[in-house]
Amino acid sequence: NGEEYHLSNYKEQIVCLIFWSADSPLTKAYDNRMIRLFSDFALKGVQFFGIASNVHETIDEIQRAAADRKIPFPFLFDESAKIADYFGANETPEVFILDHEGRLVYRGGIDNESWANHRPTKHYVHDILDALVAGNGPSIRQTKVYGNKIKRIKK
User: Fold this and answer.
1) Own/partner long-range contacts of 28-31 (Cβ < 8 Å, ≥24 apart)
2) Strand 14-19 to strand 46-52: parallel, antiparallel, or no bridges (unpaired)?
3) Which of 34, 13, 38, 19 is nearest to 103 (CA)?
4) Mind listing the pLDDT tens digit for each residue in 50-101?
């Protein structure tokens, strides 16, 4: 919608940033899990943002895919991958969680699904958000990501 967002406006909230892709089959496979996370935690004060950093995806493609796939949170169009570069995001879907003081407390995958394990048994983001909402710290700070590479402009 052209609106600018500044993380400093959300310092009192837990923020969940999800690097997302309109055309990645792995990101699409995670859509229902992302929607469940939003449903479980948005009313508990967690602010979600999808971030689209792939150079080949247009803002129209992102908006259309998010609407078609019923993603309920706002998307930031990261046209030149500045946000991805700032956080060091390399894949979609890759998650970064900031606590209520704006500190990065987690980066990694949504769960422990991998190329070898298609039935996740650990739900990292859910467990971390649960802990943060309860006033506790995360039990894990970084995990591997099962996803597709973010495509950047070659420099």
Assistant:
1) 28/69, 30/93, 30/110, 31/69, 31/71
2) parallel
3) 13
4) 999 999 999 999 999 999 999 999 999 998 899 999 999 999 999 999 999 9
